[in-house]
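Backbone geometry tokens:
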Amino acid sequence: MKTAFIVRETRGQWIGDFAAAVRAAGWRAELVTEPLADGERAELGSLVDGFVVVDDVRDAPAVAEALRDRQPDAVLTAAEGIIASTARIAELLGVARCPAAVFTRAHNKFAVRQALAAAGLPGPRAALFADPAEAPRIAAEVGLPAIVKPVNGAASTLVRTVSTVDELVAAYHLLATRLPENSDARYHRVLPGPLDPLRVFLVESLLDGPEYAVDVLVRDGVAEPVTVVGKPLIDERKFELGMVCPPFGLSGERAGLITEAATAAVLALGLDSTCAHVEVIDDAALGPVVVEVNAGRPAGGAQPALLRLATGIDVTAEAVSLALGTPPPARGTGLPVPVGYLIVYAEGTGRLVRVEGTAEVADLPEVLDVVTIVSPGQVLSDDQEIYAVNVLVAGFADLDDLAALHAEAAKLVRFELEEA
């Protein structure tokens, strides 16, 4: 029997989903992890067929050496911070499906912006911001208002909108202070060349238009978009509050242009035998512009459940089949009504003690499922977009209905935090 090794960086619901998909393909699923507490090992033991414990899952040569005698047939992950290093492990073992260098480039937002521009795709004006003294020049080059973000960030962490040079300088100091303190390993990834992602940030001109998400599957050089998901509920911090599929009021023509932009971006980056979660803004002047390519993984949180309900396509199983090189899984049929996905965040910063109120949310007539992503002991931060509680809904009429559902769910869910 073939064996796939799933590399795990931190806790994540995706681990059980990936292991189930590996087993459904008739393979063994073993977990590669750093040392575990007894309770967590027991919890994960029911999900996988074995463990390989290593000192550092990011040390590709050491992990490859630990796996070599086990004759691995595939090595995979959906952990954002270690996608490139896991691909490097697969390369060292001769089972890679997509080059690690492709993922390394995809995790550098400025390199992505350059690659998409070279491919002739539209994009915002962009510049690297390495010195607050350069703020006046950067503002003139990119234009204001603008977005400031980590070069290797994700999930809206420390993304700031600025409208003046003073705000641009303040954003630089904020990122330079907060990023080194962030415990998420993705912000400490070493990028090729002299660029220090803890001191050099990306500034992009602000786009004007609705935002969408597209998961793209790439098999044998052919990119297939799953569908377009609308993101109509976004707060002032750029946090996603609610999504809907199909999007409200989106014509078939615009949907086609959005999926074309997403698939073109994925192919321009050289992705193959993998998937990507792509975010697009349909800018009033430029048309659909790719603003984020999360390469090597499907959508996060409960978005795979949203896509399965809306389309019948299990993007997690699809991603695993691409990593294993097995035939695509069977597909079903989506619901005949719009499906929504609501996200509730914890307010404040601290260590999670408990989450309450999810049972009351589950009792609401429009609610299909409630999925709690966070777990007790986890540190939650206002700096980071953490999908704490995810609510899948149907039976709503319009955007006002969806917004009212979010407000009701957010009022019912309660997070108890203690000082970290």
Summary: The chain has 13 helices and 19 strands.
